[in-house]
Design brief:
One of its GO terms (molecular function) is ligase activity, forming carbon-nitrogen bonds. By secondary structure, the protein is of the alpha+beta class. It has 17 helices and 13 strands.
């Protein structure tokens, strides 16, 4: 198996980079022609969702050993196929992608129903294997008998190719560590944390949700994209959910220093530091878009980590297959996508990638619906948010990463006045989310139901990251070590989620 994977990696590395780049530019012209012809236009907005999980031991066989309870578990590949989930970077990961639905009352209900139905079925299957899928931003309890450092850095060399031992068998991921542009090490850059590896495996610490918003008219994508950049900071501030790493990754500096200097959303820092190189900033907050052609060109001209072979096929988007392949490593916190299996399915969409996986399904759908509502309302109301300088939007984003709801987001309200009042910022944002959802056909009470879980976070001034930090502080005050405090907090998180994942919300935890 390892030798076969190594051979596939060598085949990928044999692709001529100049030919790959030239074909990507040619493909970009195909897409731009189809855009001008209206191929990517649709009669309405459509929503979708990618939802990532990690697996843990469910505790049934750990009664005599509390240290192993809810430790990370590898998901057998046959089990992933059985539950209809997709593999992600690490062997512990599982990903669900929903079927795209029209943005209306029935479409959003269908999104939530599909997530619940498929997740409930998956939970039944994984329970039989002694494991549980967890919706969370960053795991902290390693597999039984291993340290997190060992799990994340384990690798072998097969015929000159470096293979991560706990990574899914994806040629793309393994090739990143073996290509000519790969760095000597892939390290995490976060306060008081030290970890470097010779593969991209440290990125498997993190999991996310990714709402998709498919635009009705492709030419409107740049305007919507720029609005998405303005809401990225405020929505990230609500969704922060990864304030801690596995304890063995921390430097020996003491709990109080770690608490004082840590971020509310380390997921952002992990993704950027592991996958960015000095000469290729692959993961970053993107700049504003001026035209739809510019969106295509940015993908085509993005730094290529590794050129990959492209198989021929009969799908519509196989006409620009190399550009699609390149898009697979076009990592931006908000990114445009152009694809479609057939000409009638062709779509231009925005993928919103800043939000960590959330405590419950209802919270995850709340972000999906709120983002979609904002994309409907802000441009229709000619909201002045895009009058805000791009640099301010970027500052908001990284302030939110560090301090969550305490970051004092800057926002231009509907009246054109900038405010840093948390109440005013979110009152304006939620009002427009509800407005957009009602414009899409929801009743006001239905729209409010989707937004309510996020309102509760503002009203209680508590995010999932705040909840985790508070738990750790309580355990420290009771005399626990820092490592034990993190582990106890994480077990509390999973226990709370057991009761609320499918039917409750994070507000029930408060």
């Amino acid at each position: 198996m390892t030798e076969e994977l190594a051979a596939e990696v060598r085949d990928a590395l044999a692709v001529d980079p100049d030919e790959f780049e030239a074909q990507a530019r040619t493909d970009a012209e195909v897409v731009k022609t189809e855009l001008r012809d209206g191929t990517f236009d649709n009669h309405q907005s459509i929503v979708g969702l990618e939802y990532e999980f990690y697996a843990v031991a469910d505790g049934r066989w750990a009664a005599s050993n509390e240290a192993d309870r809810y430790g990370l578990m590898r998901v057998p590949r046959r089990l992933l196929e059985l539950i209809g989930f997709e593999k992600e970077l690490g062997l512990h990961n599982a990903e669900m992608t929903t079927s795209p639905q029209p943005l209306n009352a029935d479409g959003l209900r269908a999104q939530e129903s599909e997530v619940r139905a498929r997740l409930a079925a998956a939970m039944d299957c994984t329970a039989a294997e002694g494991m549980r899928l967890v919706s969370d931003g960053l795991w902290t309890i390693p597999p039984a008998g291993e340290t997190a450092r060992e799990y994340l850095t384990g690798s072998v060399e097969a015929e000159g190719v470096r293979i991560a031992t706990n990574m899914s068998g994806s040629v793309r991921y393994h090739t990143m560590a073996n290509g000519p542009n790969a760095g000597e090490e892939m390290a995490i850059d976060a306060p008081n944390v030290t970890l470097s590896a010779d593969t991209v495996m440290p990125e498997s610490l993190i999991t996310s949700i990714q709402p998709h918003y498919q635009v009705a008219q492709a030419e409107d994508l740049p305007t919507l994209f720029n609005y998405a950049l303005r809401v990225a900071g405020p929505l990230l501030a609500l969704g922060v959910n990864s304030p801690f790493f596995p304890p063995d990754l921390y430097d020996d500096v003491g709990a109080q220093k770690i608490l004082a200097e840590g971020y509310d959303e380390h997921r952002i820092a992990v993704f950027e530091s592991v996958l960015n190189a000095e000469d290729a900033q692959k993961v970053r907050f993107p700049e504003d878009l001026q035209t739809i052609d510019q969106a295509v060109d940015r993908v085509a001209t993005d730094d290529t980590m590794v050129p990959m072979p492209v198989a021929e096929g009969n799908r519509f988007d196989d006409q620009f297959a190399t550009l699609r392949r390149k898009h697979g490593t076009y990592w931006r916190w908000v990114r445009p996508v152009f694809d479609g299996a057939s000409r009638s399915d062709a779509n231009a969409r925005i993928e919103f990638r800043p939000i960590a996986a959330q405590p419950t399904v209802h919270d995850s759908i709340a972000f999906q619906a709120t983002f979609a509502g904002l994309m409907e309302s802000l441009p229709q109301r000619r909201h002045p948010a895009t009058d805000q300088p791009w640099s301010t939007a970027r500052g908001n984003f990284y302030d939110a990463m560090r301090e969550g709801l305490d970051s004092r987001q800057r926002w231009i309200c509907n009246d054109g006045v900038e405010t840093m009042s948390t109440e005013e910022v979110y009152e304006d944002i939620f009002a427009h989310a509800v407005d957009g959802l009602t414009a899409a056909g929801l009743s006001e009470s239905e729209a409010e139901t989707y937004v309510r879980p996020l309102r509760a976070r503002v009203e209680n001034r508590t995010t999932p990251a705040d909840w985790k930090v508070s738990r750790v502080r309580e355990y420290l005050a009771d005399g626990d070590s820092f490592a034990d405090a993190i582990a106890s907090m994480q077990r509390d998180y999973v226990r709370e989620q057991r009761e609320t994942l499918l039917e409750g919300s994070f507000a029930d935890w408060l």
